[in-house]
Each structure stands twice: as C-alpha cells, then as structure tokens.
C-alpha cells in the first residue's frame, strides 16, 4: 500500500513539473488590444508619472503602440501592482518584442518603449530609454516592495 501511495505521489509531481515546463516564460497582463482597459481621455499636454507611494519610477511621455497615454499608464499600473503583490524583486531587464525595447521585471512584461517615447524625452534611442526606465524601476521596486517579501533585515 505504501508503494502505491509513493508511486501516485511521484506521478502527480511529474505531471505538475511537466505542466510547469510547458508554461510560458513570460507573463503578460493585457496581452491583446481587446483586453486593454477603457479609460478616460487626458489633456494633450499630459504625461504619465509611474510610481508607488510617492516613489517615482519613470514618466511616460505620450501615446505609444496604438494606445493612449491613459491606457498605457493603466496597464503599467496594473502590472506593477501585480509584481508588488507577488513580491517579484528580481532584476529588471530589457528584451526586444517585435523589434521594440521592452522592460521586464522577472517574467512580467512591464512596458514596451517606442521610438516616439525616446524622441519625446530627448534620448537618442528607445533602447537607451528602456535601460534608464529599467534602472529606475528596479530602484523604485526596492523602495516600495512590501516588507513581508524582503525579510526581517529590510526593516532595520
């Protein structure tokens, strides 16, 4: 009987591991235009400051990728909330998606940076801006991550 239980547990663990191996390495919240939240309009002169609890991460300068500035801000806000709620304090990286520089926090896609973003900020290229945003995002997450994820030494 013990052997049957051990075999059943082993099989269920293998099935779970196989399911995890087939899972995507990327987590995308709002992956299609149909999933994008409906938001109001903002004045043409608006920019979107991204941050948490008074800690600024970066400023989105304008529309991009077929989305309004308000939509982009809502998406990034939702993604940062998800990242913080799961305690994802890992390196923020930049990888290309369809030829565009995209910031990731671990497996979470945070934001795609377009050439118009770089132009509006006065930076040479979107890759450079993506690296700047990745650095400031990593710093901001480290400052705002709930202490329950950082361990007891974080409060000292």
What is Rg?
19 Å
Major beta sheet summary: 3 strands, antiparallel
Shape: globular
Count of helical stretches: 5
Termini distance? 51 Å
Residue stretches low in confidence (pLDDT < 50, at least 5 long) are 3-23
Averaged pLDDT:
77
| Percent helix | 40-55%
The sequence of SSEs as H and E is HEEHEEEHHH
Strand content: 15-25%
Number of structural units classed as domains = 1
Structural classification: alpha+beta
Sheet with the most strands: spatial strand order:
3-4-5
Tell me the total number of β-strands: 5
List the helices and strands and how they pair.
Elements: H1 2-22, E1 48-52, E2 55-60, H2 69-85, E3 92-97, E4 100-105, E5 108-113, H3 115-121, H4 126-144, H5 147-150
Antiparallel strand pairs: 1-2, 3-4, 4-5
């Amino acid at each position: 009987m013990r052997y049957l239980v051990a075999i059943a547990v082993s099989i269920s663990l293998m099935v779970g591991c196989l399911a995890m191996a087939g899972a995507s390495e990327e987590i995308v919240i709002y992956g299609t235009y149909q999933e994008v939240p409906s938001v109001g309009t903002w004045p043409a002169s608006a920019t979107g400051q991204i941050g948490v609890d008074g800690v600024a991460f970066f400023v989105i300068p304008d529309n991009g990728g077929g989305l309004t500035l308000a939509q982009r801000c809502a998406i990034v806000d939702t993604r940062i909330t998800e990242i913080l709620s799961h305690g994802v304090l890992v390196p923020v990286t930049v990888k290309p998606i369809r030829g565009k520089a995209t910031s990731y926090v671990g497996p979470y896609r945070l934001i795609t940076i377009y050439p118009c973003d770089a132009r509006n900020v006065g930076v040479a290229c979107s890759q450079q801006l993506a690296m700047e945003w990745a650095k400031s995002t990593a710093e901001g997450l480290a400052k705002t991550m709930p202490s329950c994820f950082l361990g007891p030494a974080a409060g000292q």
